[in-house]
Amino acid sequence: MVGGKSKFTESAFEGLKREIEEETGSMPKIKKTIPLEMFTSNDQKFFFHTYLIAIDAEFIPKLNDEHSGYCWCAFECWPKNLHMGLKNTLNNKSIKGKLQTILDLIV
């Protein structure tokens, strides 16, 4: 999982692509980008977008200093130490259903 803040001049998708390259050292060929979640705080000062990116194959990332490790995992076999926001997203029943539908279609 990669993440970060879009720069002022970037769209959310442009920021996503830049963060992927910065944090993994490369840009895998993206087959499909699917928005999963868009969140905005009540005060409109904090927002984030969550995307699912489908790629052709697993790869070995060259992680930057923002990460201490990586893994490829099966659906619902998430690592234990997830960022709390990501954990909430992955435990959301609606998003779980959307992810399962997507996996059923692409696998």
SSE order and pairing:
Elements: H1 12-24, E1 30-40, E2 47-55, H2 84-91, H3 93-106
Antiparallel strand pairs: 1-2
Q: Quick one: overall form?
A: globular
Average pLDDT taken over every residue: 87
Largest beta sheet: what is the strand line-up? 1-2
| SS-based class | alpha+beta
Strand and helix order: HEEHH
Radius of gyration: 14 Å
Task: Count up the helices.
Answer: 3
Characteristics:
107 residues, alpha+beta, 3 helices, 33% helix, two-stranded antiparallel ribbon
Describe the structure.
- The chain is an alpha+beta fold and 107 residues long.
- The protein has one domain.
- Helices cover 33% and strands 19% of the residues.
- It has helices at residues 12-24, 84-91, 93-106, and strands spanning 30-40, 47-55.
- Strand 1 and strand 2 (47-55) form a beta hairpin.
- The longest helix is centred in the C-terminal third of the chain and has 14 residues, at 93-106.
- The radius of gyration is 14 Å and the shape is globular.
- The mean pLDDT is 87.
